[in-house]
């Protein structure tokens, strides 16, 4: 047999060209990794999995699977001649190639920077997104191929910056409606091809996707039709969580799945599961109240605004320690979530942030959050002026971190930060940093008051030793571009604003220095469509 490294882990299948006699059969195995003896290893992804091809004996024959795909990087072929092997009883392999199979939705964004780790992380994440971007977003392209919901809303901004999901998300919401149970439960997996039961069927961080996704769609595409069409779905799910709550506290679910530490990955270990579940109950209720207001459903506005306030009160009573100014176990997740979701009372926010920063520093500028918590940690930092902390947390080659996976030689993002401990080597669930790449480093930020990027902000963050960042995003109005360069004590920012839109520029101009736009001094940084070069000292 022969083993081939195809150079890229992907979802797809191999194409082989062979020449031999009629009825000769070859066997093709595929896998993400290798055993110590150099043979393919399917232990992490399910086995045995192989293709058999029987030759018809008519010259060079080309074959590939027609009815299935798999996640793999390595191909092992048995019963062949190749190169120096000359067994007359075996067919000869003439050629082999890999086919990367993913959804045809167009690419919407580009990102590049002076930071090698960030560039490579962007590449790894997008290879994993593509690998799991089929008729539904899957968790992995080999072992399960299931539509676990949480990854879609937690990676939502990154998905939308990178791909045009204008047609895809409506189909996904239809799947969610079709899968919703009569009692209102939205299962963790949609379509629900498998019912695992218990928390693996019913977890608020997963089910709330049906409430969050219509709002993300509205923010990025300016289209409120999903909020209107699926309002009953959203409302029914929040009502379902209410039936599971005791004094507004929801206690079931998976919590911050795969949070990081010395423990085995799985259920939330660093943070209370009830804190996670209740915060998402709060988040869902607040969005239903917002939807009711948009749709002029007066009675529902009152009901869900009251519910949101009651959950907030109960959450703070249950999880906030007024003496230490910490939530839950004082873990990064415990403090980041109420900051991001605006559950913390304003007078305590600064103190909670200090607790969060202290824990990050105590952990050596490393994260301890998991699948659910990463986004809330990243955005709690980014939205509260802690982008230098974000930079330190992600600009290294240790675990947990994207750099560790790069050093390991991977071409896709894995299920766990340490690939040797996890199963799948092709998951995008930990890819939440994409939102930071586009919104913070490049500074392309949607305006909640003007959805669909009718108006938006360009507010780049210059961090660490980075010397340039450039990104583009194809909005529904046209391409937005933000490219900055730090040179000779100056920041040079080049911006493209599409026709029929406007943007407000916010510079990291701490020196309050003179600002030039297209060579002219100005203090006015609100612009209509066009191309602009903006300079200031930094």
Question: What would you note in describing this structure?
Answer:
This protein is of the alpha+beta class and 538 residues long. The protein folds into 3 domains: 2-100, Jelly Rolls (Sandwich), CATH 2.60.120; 109-329 and 399-435, Glycosyltransferase; 455-537, Sandwich (Maltose phosphorylase, domain 3). It has 16 helices and 21 strands. It has helices at residues 116-131, 150-154, 156-162, 168-179, 204-207, 209-221, 225-229, 231-244, 273-294, 298-319, 332-340, 346-362, 373-382, 387-394, 402-407, 433-441; strands at residues 2-19, 25-31, 33-34, 40-41, 50-54, 60-63, 70-78, 92-100, 109-113, 320-321, 326-327, 444-446, 455-458, 468-475, 478-487, 490-497, 502-505, 516-517, 520-521, 526-527, 530-537. The strands form 5 sheets. Strands 9-14-15-16-21-18-19 form a 7-stranded antiparallel beta sheet. A hairpin with a 5-residue loop joins strand 3 and strand 4 (40-41). Helix 3 (156-162) packs across helix 16 (433-441), helix 11 packs across helix 13 (373-382) and helix 13 (373-382) packs parallel to helix 16 (433-441). It is globular and about 80 Å long. 49% of the residues are buried. The model has no long low-confidence stretch (mean pLDDT 98).
